[in-house]
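Title: Prediction job returns without error message
Component: structure pipeline
Severity: low
Priority: P3
Assignee: unassigned

Description:
Job completed but the reporter wants confirmation the result is attached to the right record. Sequence as submitted:
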Amino acid sequence: GRTPRCFGRTIYTTHRASKFQASKHQTIRHHTVGAMTAPAEDTAEKVPTPEINLRHCTETDIPELSELVLGICERDNDPADFSVEGRKAFRIRAGADEMAKRSADPSLHVIRYGAFLGADPTLVGMAEMFVDLETDEPDAWKILYVYVDGRRHRGGIGRKLMEKCLTHVPPGGRVKLRSAPAAVPFYEKFGFEICGPPTEPKGNGIRGSPLLLRIPKAQLP
């Protein structure tokens, strides 16, 4: 279970021990990639940043991945991006059951990565992307999530997750995603361009800006 404690706009949630967490209970400060508030100035001596390790995730990892995404979204996303209905819809979409359904859908090729620091088994970030194999756009990948634990924000984790995701897109392919307005600059660093105004494409209360990245075609030698 998880007990949320909200201080201002930051949530601290206590997670029970799992295969991703070394301690029995651990308090995590969540923050989204591209969030709007800057971290408080840290006057303590800087500690070298551990190496960022990415691991391909399987169905057995889904509960932990879902817990991370839901915890971050619940408190750190701008309320303007989610109506009451939108929050409900997002909780369903990011829930473990829906993640498992996407993995089991034969029409989808789903890829997920978890991010870890050094030898620490604690999950600090995740990304999910997929391509619909039964549409007329087999070259169009969609990035559904890129989320990072707020204590590790601006530490290069989101960048490394994005770079890993983009390695799966072939030359001439495209990548689509919908971003909270505050996170758009993060994706623009990778070449994404806004291709429309913020909308709720399914009328479910989840508002986002549509972004598109075109991967250059391979040049002949």
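Comment from assignee: result matches the submitted record. Residues 57 and 102 are 14 Å apart (CA to CA).
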